[in-house]
Amino acid sequence: NPCAILGTFILEVGSSGPYKKVRVCAQAPDSGLCFGYFERYFYNFRKGRCEIFIYGGCLGNQNNFLTEKECLCILTKLPQPHIPPDSGLCFGYFERYFYNFRKGRCEIFIYGGCLGNQNNFLTEKECLQRYVCTLDPDPGPCECYSERYFYNFKKRRCEIFIYGCCNGNQNNFETEQECLRRCRFHYYEWSPESSSFPDPSLSIPPVMPRASRLYSPVTPRAAETILPRRGFLSDATASPTTC
């Protein structure tokens, strides 16, 4: 079951890029070969959220869920720092923080006030607590020898690593106490059984959406019927992926 796998991608140590093997949940939505009209959910890997698409009723791929709740089950406790900041659909002007995965730090962006994705934080501290504590220890390119502590997200504890004294990332603390204070007691965890990620638009005054970006409904190919192509038959009520 691809949804049971932690994360939607594999980090390959030593590879040229961090997203060598993209998992099923990063697939583009596929309506299949039939002509039915069924609203389903798919996980939008680029935006980091679940969205509706029209499923034809047969075949397609596994990034296909009957309900938004089923789709959300692919969002594991591991955060998704690869998601770029999303200002949303509204015209507000709110300074927020997002985690810049390539630079390894939290930066400011302007949030419009509605929708967007989960890489959106009110304060730099909140952003750091969410992402920094999941980074692998990075000794940096220098050859100095300095004992530091990093937070081991998988084991939920602070451990020693050897720091080269330059560059690296922010999961790097001089003392175990500092490491625990930053990561152990504040790290936000999410599970499908609890709820979805917090809505970044909460506590923001209503803002008018951008009319040019409003959703326009898709015209059905055939309302609630299945007309298979190429001789394929399938049960349209069956979910291709069950989490």
UniProtKB/TrEMBL annotation:
<keyword id="KW-1015">Disulfide bond</keyword>
<keyword id="KW-0646">Protease inhibitor</keyword>
<dbReference type="GO" id="GO:0005886">
    <property type="term" value="C:plasma membrane"/>
</dbReference>
<protein>
    <recommendedName>
        <fullName>BPTI/Kunitz inhibitor domain-containing protein</fullName>
    </recommendedName>
</protein>
<dbReference type="InterPro" id="IPR002223">
    <property type="entry name" value="Kunitz_BPTI"/>
</dbReference>
<feature type="domain" description="BPTI/Kunitz inhibitor">
    <location>
        <begin position="81"/>
        <end position="131"/>
    </location>
</feature>
<dbReference type="InterPro" id="IPR036880">
    <property type="entry name" value="Kunitz_BPTI_sf"/>
</dbReference>
<feature type="domain" description="BPTI/Kunitz inhibitor">
    <location>
        <begin position="133"/>
        <end position="183"/>
    </location>
</feature>
<dbReference type="InterPro" id="IPR029856">
    <property type="entry name" value="AMBP"/>
</dbReference>
<feature type="domain" description="BPTI/Kunitz inhibitor">
    <location>
        <begin position="25"/>
        <end position="71"/>
    </location>
</feature>
<dbReference type="GO" id="GO:0004867">
    <property type="term" value="F:serine-type endopeptidase inhibitor activity"/>
</dbReference>
<keyword id="KW-0722">Serine protease inhibitor</keyword>
<dbReference type="GO" id="GO:0009986">
    <property type="term" value="C:cell surface"/>
</dbReference>
<dbReference type="Pfam" id="PF00014">
    <property type="entry name" value="Kunitz_BPTI"/>
</dbReference>
